[in-house]
Every structure is written in C-alpha cells, then in structure tokens.
Amino acid sequence: MNDIDAWVWWLVGAAALGIPLVVTAMPEFGMLAVGAVAAAVAAGLGFNGVIQVLVFVVVSVALIAVVRPIAARHTRQRPQLATGIDALKGKQAVVLERVDGFGGRIKLAGEVWSARALDTDRAYEVGQEVDVVEIEGATAIVI
Q: By CB neighbour count within 10 A (0-12 exposed, 13-18 middle, 19+ buried), where does 100 fall?
C-alpha cells in the first residue's frame, strides 16, 4: 500500500464519491469528487498531505457555496416556454357550436375542444372568436 502515490488515492476517493452521486442524484457528491480531483492534482505536483487536504476542502466548499445556490434558484424558476395546456391559455379560438355556460364546441390550435363560457349568462354564436382563459380537464373556458 505504501507503493501507491497519494494522487491515486485521491482519484479513488473521487470515484468513490461519484458512486453516490449517480445513485442518489445529489450534486453535492459531484462537487466533493471535483475537490478530490483537485487534491489529486496537488498531490501530483508534489504538495504535502496538509496542502492536499486544504485544496480538497477549499475547492469542495467553494463549489458547494457557489454552484448550489445557483442550481436552487434555477429549480424554482418556471420554464420560459409554455407547453401543454399552459400554451393554450390566452389563445383565440373559433366557435363551432354555440358556447354558453353549459357547453359548446370551439376550434383551438387546429383541434376541436369542448368549451364553456366563463360568464354563465353569456353565449357565443358559431363563427365568433373567443379567448381561452383557462383549461379545465378537456374543456376550454372562454370569454
């Protein structure tokens, strides 16, 4: 065991930290693995064990302190591109069958949708353009 250089042990440690990264999908393990690789570089350059450990700690803590808040901020942001039913809200549609508070049919984004008027006292006639304000299940709520 004494024949193996310190940089090899640091790389073994980096690989060992990579296993829980893959298994748990916790990015902190990846940041610790990068710290271990940096310590392996320090060992390869001939620095002593204290410096190697300091490089490991500094690089790992720096990555966790900088990258983790940025990643957390990105996970809280809503996607910029609306997809699915979110993309249909605010779109215009054409009435195919009279739409009132009880139901009707519209053509929305090239497809026929069941629709209901937001204002139950209001009715929209065939050919009229309406705006989609909400999607409830398979029914478009229109004004």
A: middle
